[in-house]
Write a structure and sequence with these properties.
heterodimer; A: about 700 residues; alpha+beta; Four Helix Bundle (Hemerythrin (Met), subunit A); 4 domains; six-stranded mixed beta sheet; 28 helices; 18 strands; about 55% helix; globular; B: about 160 residues; OB fold (Dihydrolipoamide Acetyltransferase, E2P); 5 helices; 11 strands; about 20% helix; about 45% strand
Chain lengths: ~700, ~160
Amino acid sequence: MSLDADQDILQDFLVEAGEILELLSEQLVDLEQSPNDPDLLNAIFRGFHTVKGGAGFLQITPLVECCHNAENVFDTLRKNQRQVTPELMDTVLSALDAVNEMFETVRSDEMPEDADPALIDALAYYAQPEGEETLSSPTEEASANQSPESSETIEAGGDITDTEFESLLNALSPEDRAAMEKESPAPKATETAAPASDDITEDEFDALLDELHGKGKGPGVAPANKPAAPAASSDEITEDEFDALLDQLHGKGKGPGVAKSEAKPEAAPKAASAPPQPPAKPAAPPAVASKAPARKEPIADTTVRVDTSRLDEIMNMVGELVLVRNRLVRLGSDSADAELAKAVGNLDVVTADLQSSVMKTRMQPIKKVFGRFPRIIRDLSRSMKKEMVLEMIGEDTDLDKNLVEALADPLVHLVRNSADHGIEMPDVREKNGKDRVGKVILSAEQEGDHILLTIADDGAGMDPEVLKRKAVEKGQLDQDAADRLTDQEAFNLIFAAGLTTKEQASDVSGRGVGMDVVKTKISQLNGTLNVWSELGKGSKIIIKVPLTLAIMPTLMIKLQDQTFALPLVNVDEIFQLDVSRANKIDGHEVIIIRDRTLPLFYLRRWLVRDPAKREISKEEMQDAHVVVVAIGNQQVGFVVDDLIGQEEVVIKPLGTMLHGTPGLAGATITGDGRIALILDIPGLLNHYTGRR
Amino acid sequence: MSSPQKFQAESASDLVLQYVTFRLAEETYGINVMMVQEVLRYSEIAPVPGAPEYVLGIINLRGNVVTVIDTRQRFGLMPSEVSDSTRIMIIEADQQVVGIMVDSVAEVVYLKQSEIETAPNVGNEESAKFIQGVCNKNNELLILVELDKLMSEEEWSELAAI
């Protein structure tokens, strides 16, 4: 079943609720550390509530139900009627998982299925104050704060908690608390009426109409029993649901009109203190105006969502601007006009600033990825009965958005590895004289134009000898080669496919494929991986990735008049050599460098179109530039005409027509506005030598 | 022109189309103006090794890389030297932007739908398949080019075969 909701509203909901859910996962883990933090409890409560509100508006009932029950649990928690226990956390976290799952379904424009009834029951159980569980079964509890219409359960229940929440927030004064305790749980039934008036302004106009008919006394009773209710309700609007309210006002434009005609005859005879609903509405915005500056100003929304392709466009234009500037700078230096020189100088500064600002807009803090780790560590420590803490350093380090997303999976894998393989069981740790609680440190820092990510643990460390033995057993190395490996090289064996030191694969790790994937992924990002480990002390894996994916460091070379760029990650070394004396093995030219034999190729023969210009003269051969490139562990030498130097380039895709041209990764525009082709070295070798 | 045809054309208020004309060898060709993004003077084209033969190379169009097609080669004409009047027309067809190199670009002409005739089935096959129709204007034959075909499926299979 698909959702028939307005796409715009749905998108807004997805974006907003997505962020809240992300935040919730962090907050829930924090909560376990500080179970009695009232701010945190309120934040989580509000999170669930907001998601529920949005889902209710879109009529995604399963999501509403799940959030509603979770919300109830936190309502009980903040009223100190129950303590946070690991079991409760498990339930709440699995509720969050369920919500996330439903959320994904909604994202694909489908109506999610109902949550597992067992989960809902469990939530309902925890929603009851401690010690009262036996007195009221979940169903009774639910019916206690239910309005006559069973369909109203969710909204009405939610609003009760709202109101109480507000009074709790506003008034920590004893009499209010006392009043509240008196009220609950018995007066709940009468109180239902008060929220009913909230309901009108807050949640559901349609539902409201029914309700007004059903129990017309609602608005009248509310002010009588609880004079604070109207104030509280307007607070509620300002804080949580103003946006939702506005949406509703706009979206259901007919609402107020209908409500007016329906509500007036009902409400007017009741009591003067009960204002008819429509007038109450206009009152809400002014309340916002007066309240917002006072309390909420610092959190005013200053962000704008922009499509990354638009940023790329801007980036492109800035690149062009830089070229124009370069041309102007050159012209300016030729002319003696001081004014011109000044203007060009200014332009120079402004473009540089503009360029870096545009770069920054693509940056995101790595917190986005780090945020999920506390939960992972928490789940792992519970499921493996280990004790560990996660320490995160440098969460605010910024890096390219694409990179943030691409790094998520490898990092998750490495952290799981550290927790599973690295950290020992608490008893073992104690026996070895270590703290029972293992520590996993995740850190990020910027180093020049690179980001260093470190995943360190103080666990058992790795034994190079064991690694070597495993590799030999798996037939990946022969004994001789294994013996020659340094410890460092042995650690790198963990990245080989199929190697695992675990005898038994668990559901967490140990199948021997993960590290291979991590390595591949990181190299795709033009990054490198380093392993350091000391037996008994712990391990550390250092990932180094460039700040952005859009820019690639290259070595610019020349063949005849054309410029080409070799990705610098592939380049090992450069030297001059008299290649006319190169040896020939089996018809292929080879050179010998430091006792290693490398195949030698003339790039000109491959990449210059005009056959007349392809051949290399004797003189050229005697003083040739050789670039040694590495692909995996294989090295080859390329003879090039000229070396220009190292340059960081912006990769531009070749058009659809040329897409897939062998040996080319793309093109780039050089400082003087000309085009240089970026070579894809493995593809190049593959195509022109027909090997591998 | 026969009278029923004329009548029909007038009743359909005879759609007026604009064509950009360009010259290749001794002939004048036309491209629907809606497909032409801009016309550039010849600038250095970077050859692309391994690309199909009719691809001259790529140029930098304000930060974007655009493929340039050798139209002469595509139409089965003899190659010629680049001159002062050589132009690169940036066209958008089949959801891609490409440049086509032509000897010169002349003007924009207005053609009535009724003036366009289907191409006589003569000439070599290489060029015939890109021709949408012909038009006789001021005693000069204008060949209207079907751009989508210039970069059509055959070329894709050609690319794939490399």
